[in-house]
């Protein structure tokens, strides 16, 4: 059970530190990735565990310091762990969001399910020391169990969109009308990570 919790925690606590100097393409997921009328190019990658790979993509001209749009593709290999699946990974992320809601006044989420696929739609924020909003981020996480070269794995593809300062309120008012298209585009994205050589 501890191994299940550890595997779920890897996906539940995805962070981007940009601590690596080299950009390595660990797998092919398309470059660029086309989403919602934009092209996203590989901008950062990480392989912190033997079973876990992550690649982040930005539109041309955007940087991590002030990004407004990002696509992330993460692959977690289950290995010999039998009792972990997409549902448990989603549960771990929801537990994290429930804890965050205690200190983040904007944080909220909803979950959509389709068989063994899950779409976790959530919003988080960052405030200054006085409680004023500095940044709001919408995230759409699409979890899907797959098989890669005969190995059980989960592929998490997610879209992040941010707004800062005076752009926050206009951004939040557009979310209800744009969310359905974002969800449709994400869940139908023709993307299957390919490793060469196989991991």
Protein architecture, described:
The chain has an 8-stranded antiparallel sheet with strand order 1-2-3-4-8-7-6-5, sandwiched between helices. The chain is globular. It has about 200 residues and is of the alpha+beta class. Helix content is about 25%, strand content about 40%. The N terminus is likely disordered. α1 crosses α2. It has 3 helices and 8 strands.
Can you lay out the helices and strands and say which pair or pack?
Layout: H1 2-12, E1 33-35, E2 38-49, E3 52-59, E4 69-77, H2 86-100, E5 108-114, E6 117-127, E7 133-148, E8 151-164, H3 168-187
Antiparallel strand pairs: 1-2, 2-3, 3-4, 4-8, 5-6, 6-7, 7-8
Helix pairs in contact: 1-2
Percentage of β-strand residues = 35-45%
Measured on Cα atoms, how large is the radius of gyration?
Answer: 17 Å
Main sheet: strand order: 1-2-3-4-8-7-6-5
State the separation between the terminal residues, measured CA to CA. 24 Å
Helix content: 10-25%
Number of strands: 8
Model regions low in confidence, pLDDT < 50 over at least 5 residues: 1-8
Number of H/I helices: 3
Counting helices, strands and paired strands, the structural category is alpha+beta
- Give the biggest beta sheet: 8 strands, antiparallel
Shape: globular
Helix-strand topology string: HEEEEHEEEEH
**Residue-averaged pLDDT, rounded?**
88
